[in-house]
Write a structure and sequence with these properties.
Layout (H helix, E strand, L loop, with lengths): L3 E8 L23 H10 L5 H7 L2 H9 L4 H17 L1 H6 L3 H5 L7 E5 L5 E6 L8 H18 L8 E8 L12 H14 L5 E2 L2
Parallel strand pairs: 3-4
Antiparallel strand pairs: 1-4, 1-5, 2-3
Bound molecules: zinc ion.
Length: 203
C-alpha cells in the first residue's frame, strides 16, 4: 500500500538563455556560456572529463542554476559542487549499474515504473522487499535509479523534470533492519549534491 507519494522537481528550466543552446559539435558548451558556467569550468579546469562535458552540453542540466536567486558566484558554487559530485561518482554515473543488483537482482527494490499522467518518472520502492540495506549499497542503487529516470524522461525547456516517488512503508521499523541513520543521511546528501530538488508532498 503506497502511503506517501512525493513529486520531486529535479531540474526546472522555465526559460533557457540562448547561450545554453550553443553546444559545439564536440558536445562542449561554446563561447557565450553564462558567466556562472564559465566560472565553474575555470574552477574545475582539468578535473572535467568527457562525462561531465556531455552533461554540461545538455541545456536542461544548467537551466536550474540559471533559475536560482542569488549571485553568479553562488550559482557557480552550486554548479561546481554538483560537478564535483559527478566527478566523484563518474564510474557509477557512466555504468548505471548497481553492483549489488548485478550480483543478485533481489538486493534492492526501488525501480522505475514508467510515467504518471504528467509524463514524469514514477519511482517506487517497498520497504519489506530489499535484501541489501547497507548505506553505501542503497546510495549506489538510488544513484542509478535517479540518473536513469532523468535520462529516460528528460525535461523540456518549458517544464521541469520531476519524479513521483511512491514508498510502500510496509515492513519499515526503526528497531528493525532499517535502523541505520546513515542510510537517510546518504540519501539526503545524494539528493542535495547530485540532484537539485524541491520537495512538495502529495497525498
Ligand atoms: Zn541495487
Amino acid at each position: 500500500m503506497p502511503l506517501r507519494s512525493s513529486k520531486v522537481p529535479v531540474v526546472g528550466p522555465r526559460f533557457l538563455p540562448a547561450a545554453f543552446c550553443m553546444a559545439s559539435p564536440s558536445g562542449v558548451v561554446a563561447a557565450g556560456q553564462p558567466p556562472f558556467v564559465a566560472a565553474a569550468r575555470s574552477e574545475l579546469a582539468s578535473e572535467l572529463g568527457a562525462h561531465e562535458e556531455a552533461w554540461l552540453s545538455q541545456p536542461e542540466n544548467l537551466a536550474v542554476f540559471a533559475m536560482q536567486s542569488g549571485s553568479n558566484a553562488e550559482r557557480a558554487q552550486m554548479l561546481s559542487d554538483m560537478l564535483r559530485w559527478r566527478i566523484l561518482h563518474r564510474e557509477r554515473l557512466s555504468s548505471l549499474t548497481c553492483t549489488h543488483c548485478a550480483a543478485d537482482p533481489r538486493s534492492h527494490d526501488c525501480r522505475i515504473f514508467g510515467t504518471d499522467a504528467d509524463g514524469d518518472a514514477v519511482i517506487m520502492n517497498g520497504m519489506a522487499l530489499p535484501k541489501e540495506l547497507s548505506p553505501a549499497g542503497v546510495e549506489e542503487h538510488m544513484t542509478c535509479v535517479f540518473e536513469l529516470a532523468l535520462r529516460r524522461f528528460p525535461g523540456t525547456a518549458a517544464r521541469p523534470r520531476q519524479f513521483t516517488w511512491v514508498v510502500d512503508i510496509h515492513g519499515f521499523g526503526y528497531l528493525s533492519r532499517h535502523s541505520d541513520p546513515r542510510t537517510s543521511l546518504r540519501l539526503l546528501s545524494l539528493l542535495r549534491n547530485g540532484y537539485k530538488v524541491e520537495w512538495s508532498m502529495a497525498a
